[in-house]
Each structure stands twice: as structure tokens, then as C-alpha cells.
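Inverse folding, one chain.
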């Protein structure tokens, strides 16, 4: 059974850099200071609501898995996190169809099965279709996406969060620490400072600068692309342009759109 809720609105911005988050000059200093093993990140984001287009949304309890043949209707809000939908004995690959090229990502069902299940279910519900890769940060070598309601970091998400996994996590001083390390070519969950706070936003890593996040290690790495995919990501980052007149500091010279994510399965070969 489903119930209607007030529609969210997606912003379509004419400012070339309006969909990109930047760290402010004061916060940038904080972001690069390592204190007791933690790195703090605070962000500004776009609140421009020009040219708004209403998006009908439905909150629904999902009691069955989405269709895997592309026929599933789009769904953006849920009452709770997805049920288990991965099949045993299968590998899972996410194919990111973007305006700048294709990126194939092998998903890690061994170390991060719950995170992969969540991403697969959302992808098959077309949660990520026709969204912006909205944040480019060359200082961290990350490209962030996964915000269908607002196309920025402030997106309310799908209506739930998922548990941390993949190793030992701890909290200290209001921050969460985990076991992960970061390098180019990874698919990683975004999160807030608290435990078990990932939901749908993700980022893709493009270079060695992302290793600055090793001090936290709490961003769950759940996939890895190949060299061809990394080349596409690096070409995307090359679109970044500083802009002193922009309140966000810069961004890609054109919108980078995630058209869809296709999930491909293959039997595990012994």
C-alpha cells in the first residue's frame, strides 16, 4: 500500500556552476587539519530554486524486489530500507551511463553486501536516472551524485539509512571512524558524521588526493571501476573550472548527467 506525499522539486539551474558544492575559504582550512585522527568537512550548497519542476513522489513499503529488466517504474521515497534482493552465486556490475561516457563498476558483494543490495535496488527503481553528478572537488579527487530531489548535497534522500559494514567502526567526538582507505577508481558511499548514516548519495574517486580521507575511513567503499572507467572519470574532472564569481568556487564547464545505472549480473565462475 502506498500514500501520496507533498512533491519535492528538482532545480534546473542556468548558472553553469550552480549545482556544485564548494568548501568555503575558512572551512577549507578546517577540512585539511587532522585533529585526533579526524577530518572535518562542512559544505555550502545551492538553494537557487529557479525553473522548478515538480516531481511526484510516493512513499511506499517495498515488500518485493524491483524488476531487473528495466521495466520498473521510478520510485524516489521509501518507508524503510530495501529487503534483500541479491541472488547468491552472481556477480554484480553497475554500468553508469553518463553524458561523458560509460563507467563500469564491479560491486563488492563480499565485503559490503548490504550496501551493494541497497545500491542495486535503488538503481533498479531508477532512483539515479537523469540526475546530475553535482559536486566536483579536485582537492579531494571526488565526483559526487545521487540526489534526485535537489541535485545537491542537501537532498533528503530515499527516506532511510543503511547500516555501516565492511569492518570495525567507532565514534569519537561526534565523528565516525572506519576501516576503509581510498584510491582512484572507487565507488564510495557519502554519509554524515553519525554512525549508520549512508543512504543513497555516493562519490566516485578520480585520483590519489582522495587518500586524505583515510584519517576517517568511514566512507564505505563498495565498488571499483576498470582503467577505461577511470579514464572517463579523469576526463570528467578535467571539465572542472575555477570561477571566482561563483558562490561555489567552480565546477564542470557543462552539466554532467547520470542518465541511468544498469545492473548486470553474471554467474560466479569457480
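Residues assigned per position:
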Amino acid at each position: 500500500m502506498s500514500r501520496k506525499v507533498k512533491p519535492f522539486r528538482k532545480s534546473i539551474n542556468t548558472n553553469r556552476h550552480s549545482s556544485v558544492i564548494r568548501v568555503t575559504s575558512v572551512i577549507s582550512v578546517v577540512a585539511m587539519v587532522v585533529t585526533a585522527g579526524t577530518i572535518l568537512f562542512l559544505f555550502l550548497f545551492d538553494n537557487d530554486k529557479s525553473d522548478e519542476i515538480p516531481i511526484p513522489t510516493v512513499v511506499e513499503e517495498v515488500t518485493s524486489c524491483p524488476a531487473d529488466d528495466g521495466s520498473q517504474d521510478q520510485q524516489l521515497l521509501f518507508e524503510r530500507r530495501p529487503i534483500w534482493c541479491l541472488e547468491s552465486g552472481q556477480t554484480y556490475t553497475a554500468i553508469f551511463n553518463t553524458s561523458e561516457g560509460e563507467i563500469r563498476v564491479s560491486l563488492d558483494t563480499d565485503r559490503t553486501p548490504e550496501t551493494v543490495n541497497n545500491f542495486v535496488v535503488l538503481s533498479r527503481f531508477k532512483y539515479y536516472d537523469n540526475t546530475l553528478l553535482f559536486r566536483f572537488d579536485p582537492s579531494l579527487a571526488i565526483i559526487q551524485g545521487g540526489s534526485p530531489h535537489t541535485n545537491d548535497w542537501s537532498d533528503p534522500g530515499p527516506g532511510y539509512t543503511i547500516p555501516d559494514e565492511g569492518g570495525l567502526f567507532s565514534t569519537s567526538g561526534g565523528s565516525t571512524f572506519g576501516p576503509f582507505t581510498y584510491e582512484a577508481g572507487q565507488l564510495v558511499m557519502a554519509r554524515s558524521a553519525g554512525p549508520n548514516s549512508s543512504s543513497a548519495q555516493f562519490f566516485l574517486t578520480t585520483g590519489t588526493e582522495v587518500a586524505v580521507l583515510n584519517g576517517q575511513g568511514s566512507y564505505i567503499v563498495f565498488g571499483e571501476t576498470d582503467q577505461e572507467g577511470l579514464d572517463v572519470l579523469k576526463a570528467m574532472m578535467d571539465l572542472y573550472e575555477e570561477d571566482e564569481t561563483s558562490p561555489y568556487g567552480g565546477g564542470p564547464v557543462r552539466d554532467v548527467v547520470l542518465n541511468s545505472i544498469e545492473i548486470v549480473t553474471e554467474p560466479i565462475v569457480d
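The first strand starts at residue 2 and ends at 4. The CA atoms of residues 123 and 261 lie 6 Å apart.
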